[in-house]
Amino acid sequence: MGDTQDSLDHEFANYTTCHGASRIANAKNRPHMALWTLVFLAAFGICTWQVVDRIQNYFAYRTGTEINVQLESELTFPAVTICNFNRIRDSATTQNDLAYLGAAFYIPALLDDPETLNEFLQEVDWDGFNASTALLEDFAGYVRQNGFVLDNDSLAECTWRGRKCYADNFTHVFTEYGNCWTFNGDKDSPLKQTSPGAGNGLKLIMDILTDEYTEDPITGNLEYGLVFQVHDQHEPPRPELVGTAVAPGSHTYASTFQTHVINQPTPWGQCDSKKRSLTYYDKYTLPGCLLECRAAIVASVCKCRPMYYPGVLDYCTPLNLTACVLPTLAAFLRESNEFDTCGCTVPCEYTAYSSQVSYAGYPSEKAARFYETVFNYSSGYMSKNVVLLDVYYHELRSTTLEQFKAVDVSGLISDVGGQFGFFIGVSVITFWEFLEYLVMKFSAFFLFSRKPSNSNKKVSNKDVLKVDNAMVFENAAAEVAEKTESTELSTIQTKSNGEKAAVLEMT
Ligand SMILES: *[C@@H]1O[C@H](CO)[C@@H](O)[C@H](O)[C@H]1NC(C)=O
Ligand SMILES: *[C@@H]1O[C@H](CO)[C@@H](O)[C@H](O)[C@H]1NC(C)=O
Ligand SMILES: *[C@@H]1O[C@H](CO)[C@@H](O)[C@H](O)[C@H]1NC(C)=O
Ligand SMILES: *[C@@H]1O[C@H](CO)[C@@H](O)[C@H](O)[C@H]1NC(C)=O
Ligand SMILES: *[C@@H]1O[C@H](CO)[C@@H](O)[C@H](O)[C@H]1NC(C)=O
């Protein structure tokens, strides 16, 4: 029995493509064998160390980022959302309403302390303000009607690529600044800029109507001017977070950059490869997800929705905002991480816009005199009220930031395969050989351990094996010989004979 096992071992050692084994098996003498064993073991050790290292390297999920800059002949123009620091126009409201709103939003100082807030809400005689029913019953409608308005009068001039545009080219959207207006918000056919530089994008001259400002010095905005945001058409604007403020009396140049971002899904990057969808937006975006999440939190507690959140519930009244929405949100943002609680991840692919803003004084004295006659403005009115905003690409170029896996599966395979091949000459086929050898060894073990005394059969078995091998070689040689020239034939035959001899010698 031991004889058969030994012969199997020997045979395996000889034919396996892991040639270290055959070197050991065929060593000329013991020192030679010891040397080969040493070399083989050392190579095997280094190989194991390297393979483990390569596998760890893969499971570190490292990433790299590829930056690609592409010049384009035309570039999709972003949506531009414009808001005013003033939320309600003076001429459209009454002192009663303003007093009511001033009191209703007198809360930043009270937010941290629900008891003081409740006391305050109960102490004030809300009916005593005699506020209009429009304000009390439909705050959103009230803001929409009496808030910042972008019409043909306040939009003194607007051009897109040199062609005139009008108030009708802007669509209304609510944000925390009240009424805002979006240019080029159409998702399906966004405008494209075809030549670079200021004046080839959106250029507008706006009268911000500082006389109409009603912002409360304690509860409202203290600034005057516009806030604008450039954003993807699919993305809801959040100018209170990412807007850029523009002051009147200046020409603002907003040179815009377009960046495509492609992220890897977890565990490599942070994006979620499952295609998430939002309820109120047609495409998943991070701002959309966060807005829906906040809306859901507010809705669950207050049973209403602020006008600047998406949803189907009725709009909140000013007192709902004060008594419930703002404290709820403040507590939520204080106590939990918005990203984790909402489960909002960055999309795997999105377009980001950013702009670099620079200013020049505007208008010059001569221009002021000229415009004052054109627009019939009083002297000095322009520097206090008029904003000139230019949004454009200064270069028609898009940048793609693509995150990629530093080691992907095929990288791992070639890493590991390279170590196995280089150090011990092992391939996938070798593993299969080894498996086959193990199966043969086990089957031989069980076959012969049952009939340990039958040595004759064992020998004949071995002979059969030997003959089988010889036949295989002969057949292979014959097959090859058919396809080769006669000179090669002789070498192959010699080789096959030699190998046959080796097999015979081995057994
Ligand atoms: C409330 O306003 C209405 C009209 O705006 C007026 O008729 C009424 O007298 C006012 N009430 C009080 C208490 O000021
Ligand atoms: C603005 O002016 C344009 C051109 O005169 C006109 O077509 C458009 O209806 C006007 N829009 C408003 C809101 O007045
Ligand atoms: C503005 O709106 C008018 C009418 O809807 C349209 O014909 C025009 O192309 C628009 N201009 C821009 C720049 O979108
Ligand atoms: C919202 O406001 C209305 C009217 O002011 C009030 O009846 C309701 O209780 C308020 N809801 C909450 C949750 O504060
Ligand atoms: C210019 O404005 C003044 C008052 O601000 C007004 O009296 C005058 O009629 C206006 N002129 C034109 C041409 O609109």
UniProtKB/TrEMBL annotation:
Record keyword Zinc-finger present: no
Its membrane topology: Multi-pass membrane protein
Main location group: membrane
Swiss-Prot/TrEMBL keywords: Ion channel, Ion transport, Membrane, Sodium, Sodium channel, Sodium transport, Transmembrane, Transmembrane helix, Transport
Residues passing through the membrane, by range: 33-52
Database matches in InterPro entries: ENaC, ENaC_CS
GO cellular component, one term: plasma membrane
A Pfam short name: ASC
Subcellular location: Membrane
Entry keyword Membrane: yes
GO molecular-function term, one example from the UniProt record: ligand-gated sodium channel activity
UniProt protein name: ASIC5 protein
Gene: ASIC5
